[in-house]
Specification:
Blueprint (H helix, E strand, L loop, with lengths): L3 H18 L4 H11 L5 H26 L4 H21 L5 H22 L7 H4 L5 E7 L5 E7 H18 L4 H10 L5 H26 L5 H25 L4 H24 L2
Antiparallel strand pairs: 1-2
Length: 277
């Protein structure tokens, strides 16, 4: 996976799929790096993924902002909550063994896949049903196409969730959207399209912090790591624009089911490669 043209092509695919489901693309890139480059350390893998996801999230966020589907109030608050965990997660990658890293990542993907496949997306609770609840925030957003979204969420759960996502995202190199989107739709009751757009906005802020931390830690001094980040990012940026466009054409439930199926395949493949290597 060292050819620059192959890297650009892979980056385009990652940008499209990652932005479509609001997951950043790290859930595709990290398993690929694990399988193709068994010699890379967890630190190098997460550094590559965070650099690529940062470009993907930034490009995708611009596209989503144009559609007016980003919940800025939730996005800014949740992004702020991810920062401390994000820094700590990067530092943790320096000490975690590669075999432990692979097993944790594989189990996480399979568990998320099972949860999403069997639960689907709950029907979002209307603001009238929850506005009297202490700690809940009611929101109403009308996007560029005239579609209105009415929903409410528990701000306390959102903050706690974001702190955890901030830690595990750079630790596993997955960007956080793969956790944040399911959690926002299932537990915080965000509409899928608002969740994917807002998740991408949060990702853009969080991953930039992770990349800066990796820079200070010297993770990008490896020529191979730097080459892969640059090549993949060139493809990711236009791919993110395509993913944001496709998200307007695909129903939310289909996005969630496709996400669950992808997670299961990748997670099982990683676990098999680890236990039978």
């Amino acid at each position: 996976m060292d050819n620059i043209y192959l890297l650009i092509l892979i980056g385009f695919f990652i940008g499209t799929i990652g932005t479509l489901i609001g997951a950043g693309g790290g859930f595709i890139l990290v398993p690929l790096l694990i399988l193709v480059h068994p010699d890379l350390s967890p630190d190098a893998i997460t550094a590559i993924s965070m650099g690529v996801v940062a470009c993907n999230a930034s490009s995708g966020s611009i596209a989503y902002m144009r559609t007016r589907r980003v919940d800025y109030k939730a996005g800014i608050l949740f992004a702020f909550c991810t920062i401390p965990g994000s820094i700590l997660g990067v530092l943790t990658t320096k000490i975690i063994p590669r075999n432990v890293f692979d097993i944790i990542f594989g189990i996480l993907l399979v568990c998320l896949a099972i949860f999403l496949f069997f639960r689907g997306q709950k029907k979002a609770t209307s603001s009238k049903e929850v506005k009297a609840h202490k700690g809940w925030v009611s929101r109403s957003i009308t996007d560029k196409f005239g579609i209105s979204y009415q929903y409410a969420y528990d701000i306390r759960y959102g903050m706690i969730l974001s702190i955890l996502v901030g830690y595990f995202s750079p630790l596993l190199g997955i960007g956080g959207g793969i956790i944040h989107v399911p959690a926002m739709t299932e537990w915080l009751l965000f509409p899928v399209h608002i969740a994917t757009a807002t998740s991408h906005f949060i990702l853009a802020i969080m991953t930039i912090v992770s990349v800066i931390t990796h820079i200070f830690e010297g993770s990008y001094q490896n020529p191979l790591v730097l080459k892969m980040v640059i090549g993949l990012s060139v493809g990711v940026i236009p791919g993110a624009q395509l993913g944001a466009y496709l998200s307007r054409k695909i129903k939310g439930k289909i996005i969630i089911k496709a996400l669950a199926f992808s997670l299961a395949i990748v997670g099982i493949r990683i676990l098999i490669s680890r236990f039978y290597s």
